[in-house]
Design goal:
This protein is mostly helical. The protein has one domain. It has eleven helices and no strands. The longest helix is centred in the C-terminal third of the chain and has 45 residues. It is rod-shaped, with a radius of gyration of 29 Å. This is Biopolymer transport protein ExbB. It is a multi-pass membrane protein.
Length: about 250
């Protein structure tokens, strides 16, 4: 059997098509790993910021205090941005002048649209990059398989031209061609695992954000007519009729 068979020997034997397949797999691997690492770090930072914000937010004495604190604050996470959007929308003097001619239901619908808008924007943001990761996970095995088929075809042509069709002459080149399939799987498996993890995280994240939007809706609509503190609202917010809130929120969908 020929000596020196391996990946380096395979690289010396492949043609332009094989090199193109390798470059494509390498590009998918680099892109997917870049997104996996950056999104993982961003998600960890966002989680810590949200925990700190929620702890601070629910400790406010009143909705007016929250308005003052958030008025000039720069949001650093989706929850603080949603709170700022909703409070600004209902405290803006121009909006209030418009609301004077509206019923209470019309005002609630305006707040609902604002909250739904913020949730949709965050849903779009967290899904950024997932398409590329999913593409790497689904397409890489087939790209690697194509490289294997092409490599075997190329090897068999060379063997046929040399007239040496013995097993020891065929096994080496065919075995080298299978490297392409292994590379395709090496690219796909981490991408698939990461995609599933990100999808699950995003589902939980958006569910928490929507629950926070429900709390904001009740807090803001009730806050204009009561002096109850936000901290006390935090303790009792889960006792509110969720069905009535869901009906209002669903109007914005």
């Amino acid at each position: 059997m020929e000596q020196g068979l391996g990946f380096s020997h395979f690289l010396n034997q492949i043609d332009g098509v094989g090199i193109g397949v390798l470059v494509l797999l390498l590009s998918l691997s680099i892109a997917s790993w870049y997104l996996i690492i950056t999104k993982s770090i961003a998600n960890l930072i966002a989680k810590r910021r949200v925990e700190a914000f929620l702890k601070h937010f629910w400790s406010y004495d009143s909705l007016q205090t929250a308005r003052i604190e958030l008025k000039n604050a720069v949001p650093d996470n989706a929850f603080s941005e949603l709170a700022k959007m909703s409070i600004d929308a209902t405290s803006d003097s121009k909006i209030r002048n418009i609301h004077k001619s509206l019923t209470a239901e019309g005002t609630n619908e305006f707040l609902t649209r604002t909250l739904r808008n913020g949730i949709d924007q965050e849903a779009t943001r967290v899904e950024n990059g997932l398409t590329l990761i999913a593409t790497a996970g689904s397409a890489a095995p087939y790209i690697g398989l194509f490289g294997t088929v092409w490599g075997i075809y190329h090897a068999l042509i060379q063997i046929g031209l040399s007239g040496q069709g013995t097993l020891d002459k065929v096994a080496g080149p065919v075995g080298e061609a299978l490297i392409m399939t292994a590379l395709g799987l090496a690219v796909a498996i981490p991408a698939v695992l990461a995609y599933n993890a990100f999808v699950r995280r995003n589902r939980i994240w958006l569910a928490r954000l929507e629950a926070f939007a429900h709390d904001l809706f009740v807090l803001i609509t009730a806050g204009d007519n009561t002096d109850a503190s936000i901290s006390s609202s935090a303790q009792s917010r889960h006792e509110i009729d969720a069905n009535s809130i869901d009906i209002v929120m669903d109007r914005g969908q």
